[in-house]
Design a protein that fits this description.
Structural class: alpha/beta
CATH superfamily of the largest domain: Nitrile hydratase alpha /Thiocyanate hydrolase gamma
Helix content: 40-55%
Number of domains: 2
CATH topology of the largest domain: Nitrile Hydratase, Chain A
Order of helices and strands: HHHHHEEHHHEEHH
Number of strands: 4
Strand order of the largest sheet: 1-4
Distance between the termini: 28 Å
Oligomer: single chain
Number of helices: 10
CATH architecture of the largest domain: Alpha-Beta Complex
Shape: globular
Radius of gyration: 20 Å
Length: about 210
Amino acid sequence: MPHDHHDHDHLSPSGHPYRQDNDGALTYWQTMEIAIRELMIEKGELSAAQIQAQIDAMDERSPANGAAVVARAWTDPDFRNRLLANGSDAAREMGFDIGPMHLVAVENTAHIHNLIVCTLCSCYPRNLLGLPPDWYKTREYRSRAVREPRAVLREFGVELPVTTTLRVHDSTADMRYIVLPARPAGTDGLSVDALAKLVTRDSMIGTGLAKAP
């Protein structure tokens, strides 16, 4: 299954990546969003500054948020237990509010590997991982992750022993999953910040493993 992690853009004659102009007519939903936003500002329910601050906060979300949560769970057994018991509350402890959705953390062990998918669309813990990769949203991944997950993992370079139990979790509109990957060997002396650098986006989806030190 193709899962290219790079964007390839056609070059213009000047050598710059070509981007199609985004100046077409507004869609119905874009027009509605503008109208509602302007009405909320006019009525004093929100300010333009508050809206822009929320947009900036959304743009800043990245896998580094999830990596910080994982690194703390690796070094703080009590936090790990709270994360596995209630992922939403544990994430909020660290300042990451996933909104009304319920976050479920599932742990990889020596005998269990977890894989995350959204079979209907692209439900994803964006507050912790940022925007989902393009391949996560494809129909091919969404169907094959359920139908033949071991084959999919092989294509990502993850070969599991036949004795490993593979669990596939289907995200929904009100429930998100994040994988707590197994801590790599040889990391006992590393700081929390150094550990966070070993946590990849794919390891928190289950299509990858944490990096070796």
